Amino acid sequence: MVILDYGSGNLRSAERAVARAGAEVEVTADPQAALEADGLVVPGVGAFSACMSGLLSVHGQRIIGKRLAGGRPVLGICVGMQILFSRGVEHGEETEGTGEWPGTVERLHADVLPHMGWNTVRPPADSRLFAGIDSEERFYFVHSYAARTWELDSGLAGQQPKVTWSNHGEDFVAAVENGPLWATQFHPEKSGDAGAQLLRNWLGTLG
């Protein structure tokens, strides 16, 4: 299992959490290793534009695209989820994302930003990502921007996307399961037992 190193930070906490969940983990920017791994984690912290710049520098968008074309699992975390959308808008600056999903990541309409701390989420009943996790469990968020709408009707591998929502000032997309492409806006690696169970659920889907 590979965690993609594209200069986004937050790599070691993700590495430790995935290893604790039972996987052998390598942190690398090597394209071949990233393409061949059973699973690929794309973490991300900070600004959308900076993460996209780093991703492009290691051809990460091609790696993600090639993996998905072959039905090989990818998990995006925080800004690693945001860059999967068509574009991000921060401080009036528009940045093109990878375009795996249509839609825009933009500033939340909330009285207090960033949205920092623990919050509940609302997964669909048939979610595999949240299987075995109590509906009252809370996950750790740190962000001011999010996808405030979901625009994709039909998903990858012919499967209907499963979208999980949360609320801070307004509803926003908290997680997505879309064929081999899964992602969370929150940080499972910082979300205690619930986050650990979520990572085990994802690892359990890997071939």
Automatic annotation (TrEMBL):
Keywords: Amino-acid biosynthesis, Cytoplasm, Glutamine amidotransferase, Histidine biosynthesis, Hydrolase, Lyase. The active site is at residues 78, 187, 189. Its EC number is 4.3.2.10, 3.5.1.2. The keyword Lipid metabolism does not apply. One of its GO terms (molecular function) is lyase activity. Pathway: Amino-acid biosynthesis; L-histidine biosynthesis; L-histidine from 5-phospho-alpha-D-ribose 1-diphosphate: step 5/9. Gene3D superfamilies: 3.40.50.880. Pfam families: GATase. It catalyses: 5-[(5-phospho-1-deoxy-D-ribulos-1-ylimino)methylamino]-1-(5-phospho-beta-D-ribosyl)imidazole-4-carboxamide + L-glutamine = D-erythro-1-(imidazol-4-yl)glycerol 3-phosphate + 5-amino-1-(5-phospho-beta-D-ribosyl)imidazole-4-carboxamide + L-glutamate + H(+); L-glutamine + H2O = L-glutamate + NH4(+). It is found in: Cytoplasm. Residues 2-202 form the Glutamine amidotransferase domain. Heterodimer of HisH and HisF. IGPS catalyzes the conversion of PRFAR and glutamine to IGP, AICAR and glutamate. The HisH subunit catalyzes the hydrolysis of glutamine to glutamate and ammonia as part of the synthesis of IGP and AICAR. The resulting ammonia molecule is channeled to the active site of HisF. This is Imidazole glycerol phosphate synthase subunit HisH.
